Amino acid sequence: MQSFTVHTGLVAPLERENVDTDQIIPKQFLKRTERTGYGECLFFDWRFDAAGRPNPAFPLNALQYTGASILLTGKNFGCGSSREHAVWALRDYGFRAVIAPSFADIFSSNCVKNGLLTVALKPEEINTLMARASADRLNLKVDLEKCEVSTADGFTAKFTVEPFRRMCLLEGMDEIGMTLKHDAEISAYERMQRV
């Protein structure tokens, strides 16, 4: 898993609340178990019309957000079913962080396991960033070491991350990787149990 320490990137605004995993990655794309190739399916029903043409009204189709690596969105992002494919689609598309007022718990947990940082900011901070990102290109610096989001012109907002999740992201390890860090102690304990 790729570690997350500090990331600076372009923000794509998605001004919607209660975005569920069925919209992040529709069910018809859940036929594979590998983690790649889902980026093109991200928000498929919103990004494309019935004929498969890009929907010009959808923010991710706007040229000014090409290459965005930070998604800014509304409260309760990632609600609905617990499909990990939603996180795979966001990562495969190129997102490294999602910023919202709140997230569904299972979605947020799946993000950590895949190196995607979820940042919960206050609604007024989200509103400020949303207005700026909607009006013009906005680059944000997301610093997990300082737990801070900032812009070059002085905007700063603090966020919190549960300590274990923060450590996993900083070190680029999921639960299995963290367990394997203690392989020597586990092996020693198992040897003692055989005596």
Summarize, please.
By secondary structure, this protein is α/β, with parallel strands linked by helices. The chain has helices spanning about 20-25, 45, 85-95, 105-115, 125-135, 165-170, 175-180, 185-195, and strands spanning about 5-15, 70-75, 95-100, 115-120, 140-145, 150, 155-160. It has a single domain (about 5-195), classed as Aconitase, domain 4.
What do you see in this structure?
The chain is an alpha/beta fold. The chain has one domain (6-194): Aconitase, domain 4 (Alpha-Beta Barrel), CATH 3.20.19.10. It is 34% helix and 16% strand. The protein contains 8 helices and 7 strands; from the N terminus they run βααβαβαβαβββααα. It has a 7-stranded mixed beta sheet, sandwiched between helices. The model has no long low-confidence stretch (mean pLDDT 93).
How are the secondary structure elements laid out?
Layout lengths: L5 E9 L6 H4 L19 H4 L22 E4 L11 H9 L3 E4 L4 H9 L3 E4 L2 H13 L3 E5 L4 E3 L5 E3 L4 H9 L3 H6 L2 H12 L1
Parallel strand pairs: 1-2, 2-3, 3-4
Antiparallel strand pairs: 1-5, 5-6, 6-7
